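[Discussion] Sanity-checking designs against the backbone

I'm trying to build intuition for which residues belong where. Below is a structure token string of 174 positions. I'd appreciate it if someone posts a full sequence so I can compare it with mine line by line.
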């Protein structure tokens, strides 16, 4: 069986190579509207979306992650022209899970309009490390929020194969 939703789910890939072209404000609005339409526990919508196209900010995060990990990580944003950071109150029971659902909603919406994405945990050391106050302010996280996850977005410059689905991760319980 197939339909547009199943095709988008099956066709999405983590894209780690982007064209230089910027994505439009209209495209960003499509993604952020879709994100806001994601379900959340008790409809709490615990997320905040910080959108940046500022290469200086992204390079500063790259440098901080490299420093903390004592390893040159290069560009953890894979040259994407835009990155959306999701933050939430880490003490809230379901908030980080809600952010995970929202970020996959962004990934699917982006794929459906011809954009590529990669979900990113790699900014975490910068956003939760010794200079977290600096980075949280730079990224305009609301008070009490901390980094949940990020997603890089852009026009894909390459593709990759689907990851194999593991059937033994499913149990039917009678
Ligand atoms: C929570 C989460 C964090 C991730 N962090 C990164 C990351 O920091 N850098 C990266 O290149 N890919 C990251 N990925 C992408 C995964 O590596 C990717 O989803 C996985 O290899 C499966 O490939 P696919 O998305 O193309 O199906 C992350 C994915 C998730 C869900």
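Best answer:
Here's mine. Compare freely.
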């Amino acid at each position: 069986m197939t339909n547009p939703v199943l095709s988008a789910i099956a066709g999405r890939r983590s894209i780690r190579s982007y064209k230089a072209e910027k994505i439009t404000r209209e495209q960003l609005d499509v993604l952020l509207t879709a994100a806001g339409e994601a379900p959340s526990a008790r409809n709490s919508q615990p997320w905040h979306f910080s959108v940046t196209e500022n290469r200086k900010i992204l390079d500063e995060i790259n440098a901080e992650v490299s420093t903390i990990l004592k390893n040159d990580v290069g560009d953890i944003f894979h040259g994407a022209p835009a990155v959306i950071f999701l933050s939430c109150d880490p003490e809230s029971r379901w908030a980080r899970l809600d952010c995970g659902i929202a970020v996959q909603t962004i990934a699917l919406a982006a794929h459906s309009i011809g954009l590529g994405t990669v979900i990113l945990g790699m900014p975490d050391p910068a956003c939760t490390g010794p200079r977290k106050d600096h980075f949280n302010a730079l990224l305009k996280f609301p008070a009490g929020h901390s980094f949940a996850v990020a997603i890089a977005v852009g026009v894909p410059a390459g593709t990759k194969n689907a990851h194999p689905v593991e059937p033994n991760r499913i149990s039917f319980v009678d």
